[in-house]
């Protein structure tokens, strides 16, 4: 049953139905990374069954219009991972202000200290913090999904 709608945005969206794009994604798996290749294959197979809509857009400018397309009676969830480190601290602040102005649940998965206002629990070697609404750390995680440690 189709219970929800998903849409994303990226400066350079990749197409899971394109063999070239899938080959490129496979090239990004570093040698000796355990079962990451299998997880990627599983994710690609799942995404090919239900290809996501991903718009070519900048997170600073594209989010409000995309969020406005969500059904009015739906819970809007804004989720992002491994992207805010690529923009300046000032743009991270502007993005956080944009998300906070939306009627949304905000889930972030970024490096410690990257999401403005989200505390980073001390934990040696944790590359990612899963956060809610820009203020509550929920879990520490490996950036490539190998492990996740819930904090609450
Ligand atoms: C390390 S990849 C992470 C991809 C994906 N979010 C994930 O977690 O697997 C970083 C992505 O951020 C995108 N990106 C970088 N700056 C962006 C911006 N200003 N607006 C939208 N996407 C951006 C890049 O095109 C790239 O796809």
List keywords for this structure.
single chain; 152 residues; alpha/beta; two-stranded parallel ribbon; 7 strands; globular; binds S-adenosylmethionine
Q: Report the C-alpha radius of gyration, rounded.
A: 16 Å
Structural class: alpha/beta
Mean pLDDT over the full residue set:
93
Neighbour order of strands in the largest sheet: 3-4-5-6-7
Shape: globular
Question: Fraction of residues in helices?
Answer: 25-40%
Q: How many β-strands, per DSSP? A: 7
Ligand list: S-adenosylmethionine
The tally of structural domains comes to: 2
Number of helices: 4
Q: Termini, distance in Å?
A: 31 Å
Compressed to H and E, one letter per element, the order equals EHHEHEHEEEE
Uncertain ranges: none
State the major sheet.
5 strands, mixed
Beta-strand residue fraction: 15-25%
Describe the structure.
By secondary structure, the chain is α/β, with parallel strands linked by helices. The chain folds into two domains: 9-56; 57-152, no CATH class. Helices cover 30% and strands 23% of the residues. The strands form two sheets. The protein has a five-stranded mixed β-sheet with strand order 3-4-5-6-7, with no helix packed on it. Strands 1-2 form a two-stranded parallel ribbon. A hairpin with a 6-residue loop joins strand 6 and strand 7 (148-150). Helix 3 packs parallel to helix 4. S-adenosylmethionine binds next to loops.
């Amino acid at each position: 049953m189709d219970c929800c709608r998903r849409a994303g945005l990226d400066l350079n969206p990749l197409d899971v139905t394109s063999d070239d794009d899938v080959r490129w994604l496979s090239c990004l798996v570093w040698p000796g990374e355990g079962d990451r290749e299998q997880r990627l294959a599983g994710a690609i197979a799942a995404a090919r069954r239900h290809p996501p809509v991903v718009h070519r857009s900048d997170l600073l400018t594209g989010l409000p219009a995309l969020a406005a397309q969500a059904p009015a009676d739906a819970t809007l969830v804004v989720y992002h991972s491994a992207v805010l480190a690529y923009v300046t601290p000032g743009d991270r602040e502007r993005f956080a202000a944009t998300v906070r102005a939306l009627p949304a649940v905000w889930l972030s998965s970024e490096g410690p200290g990257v999401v403005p206002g989200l505390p980073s629990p001390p934990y040696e070697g944790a590359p990612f913090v899963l956060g809610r609404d820009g203020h509550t750390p929920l879990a520490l995680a490996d950036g490539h999904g190998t492990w996740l440690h819930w904090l609450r």
